[in-house]
Design a protein that fits this description.
This protein is α/β, with parallel strands linked by helices. It has two domains: 226 residues, Spore Coat Polysaccharide Biosynthesis Protein SpsA, Chain A (Alpha-Beta Complex), CATH 3.90.550; 66 residues. The protein is built from ten helices and seven strands. 35% of the residues are buried.
């Protein structure tokens, strides 16, 4: 199969028929074999009934319905599991992403050899204060930390080589940082394409202010798990050692000062409390590292590694 199109959605019953018709026209014009996977993230409107009606007329349309709302990351993860196409393309269901981008996004994967191509909505129709400005800040932070040169990490319109989506797990609010997950999984050829951003035709945006806080916390999680997920002691042990040695050094200084001058007011000095605090923090970080190692060594995936290819086995 040439392409799987994964579309997470929540309460988008008005836009689905137009979106499905548009995608069908584009893929047929380009002679592509395809499937459309709608993932209904616990909608409370008629979205699922609309998907079933569309499927009755087009066997290439498939659906997954969550019993309740889990979020976009969960919807993408299930869509990725079900996808069977050589190239997987994701887009939002609100008609702000144009299906006309599908052929070029696929070509960049199949002909130019990209593992992942992310859309860049250079010209946007969102509210500048509540969405555009925070998005620019998050994109700048993600760029700086990941060293991936993308302008729009959170663009819903992306294309992937099939083995990319089968090698990553998307959860929490990590759909914003799928390129980072892909990089940590060993996929380095990540590209970008300027795509059309259309004004919302139906309904209102489903995202609130909490996405900014959750997005930042999940970015921190991605980087910690990517670097230290299988060796937490390397992180906690390092900082535990630093704090412990700082506390030990201050304690040694205070001890020598007391020996030299017996009347030296040891407990009345700020250094005494700094030394005590540093030693306690250092010990706690060490304990956190040991506990992390115990959890890691007993986890089901402790020896699970992504293998690109084998020969003679």
């Amino acid at each position: 199969m040439d392409v799987s199109i994964v579309i997470p959605l929540f309460n988008e019953d008005e836009s689905l028929p137009e979106l499905a018709e548009w995608i069908e026209r584009v893929v047929k014009e380009n002679g592509l074999s395809y499937e459309i996977i709608f993932v209904d993230d616990g909608s409370t409107d008629n979205s699922w009934q609309v998907i079933m009606n569309l499927r009755s007329r087009n066997e290439h349309i498939k659906g997954i319905k969550f019993q309740r709302n889990y979020g976009k990351s969960a919807a993408l993860n299930e869509g990725f599991r079900a996808a069977a196409g050589d190239v997987v393309i994701t887009m939002d269901a609100d008609l702000q992403d144009s299906p006309d981008e599908i052929p070029e996004l696929r070509r960049m994967i199949t002909e130019e050899g990209f593992d992942l191509v992310s859309g860049w909505k250079k010209k946007r129709y969102d509210n500048k204060l509540t969405k555009n400005l925070p998005s620019k800040l998050f994109n700048a932070a993600a760029r700086q930390m990941s060293k991936i040169k993308l302008h729009d990490f959170n663009c819903g319109l992306k294309s992937y080589r099939r083995n990319v989506v089968k090698s990553i797990e998307v959860y929490g609010e990590m759909h914003r940082y799928v390129p980072v997950l892909a990089k940590w999984a060993g996929f380095r050829k990540i590209g970008e394409k300027v795509v059309e951003h259309r004004a919302r035709k139906y309904g209102v945006t489903k995202f609130g202010w909490t996405r900014f806080v959750n997005g930042f916390l999940d970015l921190m999680t991605i980087f910690f798990m990517g670097k230290f997920g299988k060796r937490p002691m390397h992180f906690f042990g390092l900082w535990g050692s630093i704090f412990f040695l700082i506390g030990l050094g201050i304690s040694a200084y205070l001890t020598v000062s007391k020996i030299i001058d017996f009347n030296y007011p040891l407990t009345n000095r700020p250094g005494f409390y700094m030394a005590l605090t540093s030693i306690v923090i250092g010990m706690q970080l060490f304990l956190a590292g040991f506990i992390g190692e115990l959890v890691s060594r007993n986890a089901a995936g402790r020896n699970s590694y992504l293998i690109e290819t084998k020969a003679g086995l």
